[in-house]
Amino acid sequence: MRRAVALAALALVGAACASGADGPSGRGGPVRVADFKPEQIRQPVFFVRFEFASDFDAKERQAEIADYEGALLDGLNSRAVLAKDVVVLRERDAKLDAAAMLGKARLLGADHAVSVHVQAIRPAQAVFCDGTRRPFRAPATVWSQAVSVVRASDGATRVVVEAKSGGLEVYDLDADCTNPRESRRRTPTEALNDAVTRLLNRIVGP
Q1: Where would I find the H helices in 42-180?
Q2: Is 137 helix (H, G, I), strand (E, B) or coil?
Q3: Distance CA 144, CA 120 (A)
Q4: What does the alpha-carbon distance between residue 163 and residue 142 come to, in Å, rounded to a whole number?
Q5: Alpha-carbon span 139 to 133, nearest angstrom
Q6: Would you give per-residue pLDDT tens digits along the chain (206 residues)?
């Protein structure tokens, strides 16, 4: 499953349009249909697209994509989720519309198509420990994640989590809210492992 295919991520609104379901237009937070349960996703196809700010060099991009893919495969295996495929998408890959992506999921016998858009930005000025007695601002690298889950059988959108509003973003700064000077920098591998854990806990369960 470790392969890059010339595809593009399933657009969040496009997924709703392809399914004929009501889309999340105008909503700022996560959307999940009432009857969705994480245990329903057992044999999905994942489409993961990366987008990097210009100051990430080619070596960093390659390493971070590999870290994310590895963490995703390990996380799925540990949760007994037998993914039909994991397709990693680069920024220059050709696009595939929502209908074609759904068709690939059906062709493989997957139960869901899961589209993830990972965006890496550096530097970002972020506020840490917000809501505590000692909030502080510091430069950091941030990885945001947007995800859309579509059921393969009927194309119905099941979950939509937009970037920066769904709690799936992670930073390379591990903030110490008691003593900000003791905050430490995480490696990209640590941060991306955290990102994948948050993603999988949201859509397939812990």
Answers
A1: 58-78, 98-107
A2: strand
A3: 7
A4: 11
A5: 20
A6: 444 333 333 333 333 333 333 333 334 567 889 899 999 999 999 999 999 998 899 999 999 999 999 999 999 999 999 999 999 987 777 766 788 889 999 999 999 999 999 999 998 889 999 888 889 999 999 999 999 999 999 999 999 999 877 789 999 999 999 999 999 999 999 999 999 999 999 999 99
Which residues does 20 contact at the CB level (< 8 Å), separation at least 6? 155
DSSP string covering 104-124: HHHHTT-SEEEEEEEEEEEEE
| 90 closest CA partner among 115, 65, 54 | 65
- Say if CB 118 and CB 144 are below 8 A apart: yes
